[in-house]
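Forwarding these from the shared drive since the link keeps breaking.
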Amino acid sequence: MQTVCWLVLFVVLLIIEIVTMGLTTIWFAGGALAAFLAGVIGFGITVQVVVFLAVSVILLVVTRPIAVKYFNQERQKTNAEGLIGHTALVIEDINTLKAAGRVEVNGQEWSAKTDEPDGKIRKDTVVVIEGIQGVKLIVREKED
């Protein structure tokens, strides 16, 4: 009876993986399949559980980094994430303490602030976008 439970668990986990495509249950499906095979060979429930846990953890640790590397190749940055590293022009003085300042990048205006110690950058300065916080770009003066 336990052997059939492992097979059912394998199928359920496989279906969840197919539906979500999130690389979340495939490792445990492999463990359930190995436990099913251990049950077919004739090992007891204790050995089956140990095989399930061991194979699941080994698959998770060994293959997940490789799978994530190859599956995330197609991931595209959002428009905002794509701005990081680009240059922009300050069109309104940036004063982080007063929450003022705007930049223009790719023809679009963005609110901006800086992490510079004085928190100020003058109008018409070229800046580099370092990050995004909420709807504001985090910028620093571009070095010559």
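-- next protein --
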Amino acid sequence: MAAIEKGAGESPAEFLDGSGLKIGIAVARFNSDITYKMRDLCLTRLGELGVTVEKSHVFDVPGSFELPLAARALLDPPVSVDAVIAIGAVIRGETDHYEHIANAASQGLLRVSEDSLKPVIFGVLTTDTVEQAVERIKQAPGYADSAVEIVNRLNGIGERRWRIGLV
């Protein structure tokens, strides 16, 4: 029996036009041999989708714990991107430090998204081993797809509300 593929699935093509969108990337330097590969894959995919990512929209931080603050800085003025892709890699060690960092990153990024009403894509790997993290690097282009898709879907909601007189 074949393994079931998990994940968000492919984004519908009608939502993958990134022309004119401003997408930021917050990336943790900790485990940079993993995170920088993920960043580069996201940048390549965003380019394929028509998104031009300015240098000032890529924010490096020391580790995954700092990703929520970086995401908020990218979403708020003066930068004001439409969405942020947060990239990190938290790999389990011999202490419970892993649990604290993974939880703080996930809860912080969720809070930033809710508070700003803008998408923050969770590209933080939480794995038991380096090998598992390396295997998941290839998922990074999907983060770009998700960012473009959700911005376009949210823009579509606003357009529909305007057309029927709700705003």
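The chain has a mean pLDDT of 90. The chain is about 45% helix and 15% strand.

- D.
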